[in-house]
Amino acid sequence: MSSTSTTMTIRLDPQLKAKLGRLAEGTRRSRSFLAAEAVETYVDRELAIIEGIQGGMADVAAGRTVSHEEAMAAVQQAIDKAAGERA
Questions:
Q1: Would you list the domain boundaries of the chain?
Q2: pTM metric for this prediction
Q3: Choosing a second label site near 16 at 20 to 30 A (CA), which of 1, 55, 61, 85?
Q4: Predicted confidence (pLDDT) per residue in 51-80, tens digit
């Protein structure tokens, strides 16, 4: 997180707020810190998903794809190779 911050108000279910309070007590962190950390983790994960989808769509548009059969053959080849190395 950056050293500067801004305030945002959100509505929480009372039970979730109580859980957050228990977590804050148990970790000796503020509810605000934990909530900001949770939001940051969620946003980073969701943005990574969106960027991955957009990258995949760009690959399709540019023709950088393989058929399902080619992909499965490559996977099976890797499995067979790994099984052979263990024997």
A1: 14-86
A2: 0.71
A3: 1
A4: 999 999 999 999 999 999 999 999 999 999
